[in-house]
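hey so i finally got around to running the thing on that chain from the lab meeting. sorry it took forever, my laptop kept dying and i had to restart like 3 times. anyway pasting the input first so we r on the same page abt which one it is
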Amino acid sequence: MAQREGKEAYERGLQQGSVDRYVGFELQKYLLQLILHPLRTWRHFLSRPSGRLFLFYAGLNFILGFAGASGFFASNALLLGAGGPQAMRPAYAVSATGSIVLAGLIYLIASKIDYRKLLRNSLFALACIGLVFGLGLGPHPENLALTFSLRIFMFIAIFWIHLLFWNAVGSLFSNLESKRYFPLFIVAEILGEVMGSLGLEFGSRVLPAHAYCFVFSTLVVFGAAAFRFHPRFEKNIGKTSAEVDSLKESSFWNRGSWILASTAFSFWCAYSFISSGMDLIFNQIALENFGSGNSLTAYLGAIAFFGNSAVLLYQTFFSESLSLRFGVTRSLTAISWAGSACLALFLIHPNLRTAELSQQTLFFFVDFAAIALFSSMMSLVPASQRSRWLALTEGIGRPLGCFLLLALPVGGNLTDTLAVYRIPLFAGLLFMAAIPIPFAWIYRRHLREHLSSSDQDLKKNVV
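ok and heres what got predicted. didnt touch it at all, straight out
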């Protein structure tokens, strides 16, 4: 019954010339329509300003995901080969410091900048820096200072692009459009990362790892140049009058928004702590099993490919229906418990296979699933404060989780490292698994406040 109603609503939207009137269709239904009626669907998107914007930013996110996967995992392999696992700790520290500075900058100037222009200019600058690293590492691929700087650059660059992209699209689409388009943007990014990791896996047999600096720069500059073809649109397109007014106001967060943001901040902090710890241990296991050089680069590319492919399948065929079936609180519970269970399995039985499972679950599945979940919750935050929400929760929560690792030393071998990390990681996974319990109460209370509001737009956001 529900599927038939969804299909009928989608067909009515096509016939009436406005798919925007239908919001609740599932992603797999959309893909089916795209396959069965490609010309009609594409013509429909291209005939509408918001549709053209969606296609532009989906393509841009694909390119950025491709570039990010190629550059980040290549830089990871280079640093491991030059400095070993011990070099990862200071890299985490400097990367986290830079990320907090950038997130704080976004928080302070959130309402004073044009994110689209800043994203375009940033892409040009990052492409130039990546080109310099590629030229510098050519004659000195084992130089520790250069590989260390490259790893920090790639982490901060991807983090900065992530913040700017989501702030840019958040300022362009209405609440109703964002609920439909944002999951598709995530799918485009995952697909780009799948292609990037696949290229890394097979390309590393021919290309040295430092050559992916040129791949990163080429793709990023291509994304920046694409802004020349940015679709024209009217200011505040698709936004309701209440959303436009909220953009003009410097409204303050209410108490419920602060509590909700604090819960999301706690999740990102706990997640970053255990995922960074697992990433450090996994890198040490990979280095001991595959050594340095192209074999390590190919292995890391293979892990990223399979992890991103699994996330792509989930996000495409199961995410929407499971979210509608279980809701936000149960979805967060499932995400937290899945990551905690895989990490607990590795800590109890540490070997290469359980490390791969835990790394892929935490570093890919939990990460993208949480981004999709919390991005949908941003509709409950005043439009003028969404940039600050993103900077405060994910922007600062992630780096702080990395900082907590600095108190834990890295052993000379895997046994010593596990002896140091086992108890802190167990505590971290228990904390992350417990977060959904207070979150459920806070989130439902926040929804009741919106439902009792006289503002009809707030009620629509809840629905």
